[in-house]
Amino acid sequence: MKKQKSILINRELSWLSFNDRVLQEAQDARVPLIERLKFLGIFSNNRDEFFRVRVATLTRVVKHQKKAEELMGENPERLLSVIQKTVIEQQIKFEHIYQTLRKELEQNNIFIVNEKQLTREQGVFTKTFFRDKVLPSIFPIMLDTTSKFPYLKDKSGYLIIKLGRNEKAKKSKYALIEVPTDVLSRFVVLPKDKEKSYIVLLDDVIRYCLEDVFTNFEHDYIQAYNIKLTRDAEIDMDNDLSKSFVEKITKGLKDRKKGQPVRLVYDSEIAPDVLQYIMKKIKLGKEENPIPGGRYHNFKDFINFPNVGAHELSYKKTPPLKHPDFKDQTSLLKIIKKKDVLLTYPYQSFDHLIDLLREASIDPKVLSIKITLYRVAENSNIVKALINALKNGKTVLAVIELQARFDEEANIYWANKLTEEGAKVIYGVPNLKVHTKLFLITRKEGGTINHYAHVGTGNFNGVTARIYTDHSLLTCDKRITDEADKLFQFYTDNLKIGTYKHLLVSPFTMRKQVYQLINKEIQNARKNIPASITLKLNNLVDIEVIKKLYEASMEGVKIKLIIRGICSLVAGVKGLSDNIEAISIVDKFLEHSRVFIFYNGGDEKYFLSSADWMARNFDHRSEVAVPVYDKNIQQQLKKIIDTQLADNTKARVLGSLQNNEYRKTGNPNKMRAQEEIYNSFKLKKN
User: Could you give the CA distance from residue 591 to residue 63 in angstroms, rounded to a whole number?
Assistant: First the structure.
């Protein structure tokens, strides 16, 4: 068969396309109104991280443009230009959606008012609120009296203030105020007026009371505009050999807070002289991505927008359900001894994992618990269960990844806490980020040592488990538990790599075994044996594995992809990817699970994994894909994946145009996968 040149979509542009799907949710009239506002917050938070990580990286790369172009296959400066253009287009769309939502809020008797729209009674309330709550938390900086422009924190919003004079001979003064959303809600709910609810943003409370702040400065008028700076989030590691890894990470975190600016967002209505003043003082040029925005920034706060209206304006509650096997108050270890169990979040309760670890912590037959921790909740019950195990005389080994981006400080805290309680703590593996989702309970049963393993797709985090879709496989199958034990031996002694026949393990075997699984489908297709691959991933970026999927498509292998985020593969290209269909589902829950299904001549192979298909996951991280041997669990996974593939409500087609068209299946009945899956679990529970 004639080979066709591979086509790839740039990962940064594909990510922007993903975030546009999030913006679609804010635009979708089928989504409850308050939830649409929250999607604006999610979009904004995503974009902040994109600039802090991806744009920051490209900005650094530009300094080595020639070499970078060879490695990337494209001009980084040109790519930054396309990114900026796309971001500005999305910002215009964002502003339009926000204004539309404000009008819809008003139709529901919810009014977002600014400082100029307050009634006399509301003004009195606002002044009192400002004096009692806000004033103690704001500390204006007079910019004219400082030789150096003050440091602007990443993630914080600021008001740049101009105390203007009408006479040219009299000089205007400038000040800076940080909006204190770290201690106060961004949204101040004003007293209700009959059926009408009113909300004023904290920014506007400050604007309304600026005269009270600057009483000792002569001025004829006051102007205040929102600005926000985004900084490079990369951690530069200290090479000082005398310092511990924890010390290096801690210093890197401090330095990150002073990272180079990568984006300035400002109010598009800002007076030209004020903008010029800021740009000059901060020493920013066009390369730092100055982006005009609306009156308000830090829209991530809208994730917590209060619902002061009817219940129908928010999603109907879908409380996590008990797993049918765990619904009775009995030993979870005994149940897992008899059969494998699959937990699926957020449809089923994450508390089952807490219950399992709690049981293990007090079971006299349990000798030890070993666990990998990547991102844990702020008030982690998982860690509390481990501490309880230590207090009950169990041995606890915790492999804590200190380089989990944006969770480094929390992980250092929990590492110190566990160390204080007597756990053996390992800070990852040198040059290899530990991203596995494992724990292993070792139990002495009679004269035999048995293991109970957890292998999952998501973090041990009870908070994200309420909104992320993930799977946890609980098993005492020796084929899996023995190899999980080998992995923990590797974490303890990095020279003991081990051999793996069942688990796919990065960076040792996963890439090779994935190629073998794809090759098997290619061979079957060549023999006219039905051949197919179904993949559910967050991101599909690795160039070599994409080429392999293109090869499979050209040989007739039917490939179905469910990719939430970045997808560099282009589906449906004649002669290259005719046999590949790719969709993305963005809905109430964040699709986070990774599932691989290979038809394998009818004897299907199922895997759950912590790994996306990116070069970093195959080659630079410790990852695991676990085979699912239990036929009943295979059928559970198949039903979930088939439901998602049938989605014609929240599924978008991933194609070369990246226009995120909603998928049409020809089914006249609406299929919304997440609702269908929850209802399915609910029926099983009953």
Answer: 36
How many whole angstroms separate alpha carbon 108 and alpha carbon 101? 11
Mean pLDDT throughout 144-151? 77
Residue pLDDT, tens place only, 92-133:
999 999 999 999 999 999 999 999 999 999 999 999 999 999
- Domains, in order of start, for the chain: 13-108 (1.20.58.310), 114-298 (3.30.1840.10), 324-498 (3.30.870.10), 505-685 (3.30.870.10)
CA angle centred on 304, ends 298 and 307, rounded to 5°: 130
**pLDDT tens digit string along 562-571?**
999 999 999 9
- Tell me, yes or no, if 352 is annotated catalytic: no
CB distance 437 to 421 below 8 Å:
no
Instruction: Please give the angle made by the CA atoms of 597, 600 and 604, to the nearest 5 degrees.
Output: 50
At 334 the three-state DSSP class reads helix
* Token pair listed for 402: 């200190």
Kind of pairing between the strands at 468-475 and 532-537: unpaired
Task: List the helix and strand counts (H, then E) for the chain.
Answer: 20, 26
CA distance linking residue 377 with residue 464, whole number of Å: 8
pLDDT tens figures, 432-456: 999 999 999 999 999 899 999 999 9
β-bridge mates for residue 174, sequence order: 162
**Digit-coded pLDDT (tens) for 180-229:** 999 999 999 999 998 999 999 999 999 999 999 998 898 999 999 999 88
Contact 469, 591 (CB under 8 A): yes
HEC per residue, 14-37: HHHHHHHHHHHHHHCCCCCHHHHH
CA distance 354 to 360: 10
Which candidate in 297, 323, 352, 435 is catalytic?
A: 435
* 62 — pLDDT class (breaks 50, 70, 90): confident
Beta bridge partners of 284: none
pTM of the model: 0.89
Residue 228, class by beta-carbon neighbours within 10 Å (0-12 exposed, 13-18 middle, 19+ buried)? Answer: buried
- Which residue in the block uniquely carries the two structure tokens 């509390």? 384
Q: Name the CA dihedral angle for 370, 375, 381, 385, rounded to a multiple of 10 degrees.
A: 10
Can you tell me the distance from the alpha carbon of 454 to that of 480, in angstroms, rounded to the nearest whole number? 10
The helix/strand/coil state of 275 is: helix
Query: Can you tell me the distance from the alpha carbon of 207 to that of 568, in angstroms, rounded to the nearest whole number?
Result: 45
Residue 124 CA to its chain's centroid (Å): 41
- Please enumerate in sequence order all residues whose Cβ is within 8 A of that of 365, keeping only pairs 6 or more positions apart, or say none: 443, 444, 445
- Given a cut of 90, whether residue 483 has pLDDT beyond it is yes
Q: What are phi and psi of 385, to 5 degrees?
A: -65, -40
Alpha carbons 195 and 132: distance in angstroms, whole number:
27
Question: Angle CA(670)–CA(674)–CA(676) in degrees, nearest 5?
Answer: 55
What is the C-alpha separation between 627 and 608, in angstroms, rounded?
A: 7
Bridge partners, residue 608, by sequence: 595, 626
Q: In whole angstroms, give the CA distance from residue 623 to residue 285.
A: 41
- Does 328 score more than 90 pLDDT? no
Cα separation, 22 vs 34, in Å, equals 15
Separation between Cα atoms, residue 288 and residue 286, nearest integer Å? 5
CA atoms of 402 and 495, how far apart (whole Å): 21
DSSP symbol at 303 = G
Find out whether 27 and 97 touch, Cβ atoms under 8 Å.
yes
Give the relative orientation of helices 381-391 and 408-421 as an angle to the nearest 10 degrees: 20
- Kindly report the average pLDDT of the chain as a whole number: 90
Strands (E), 346-404: 366-373, 395-400
Q: Report the pLDDT value the prediction gives residue 281, as an integer from 0 to 100.
A: 80
Is the pLDDT at 238 greater than 50? The verdict is no
Q: Check pLDDT > 60 for residue 239.
A: no
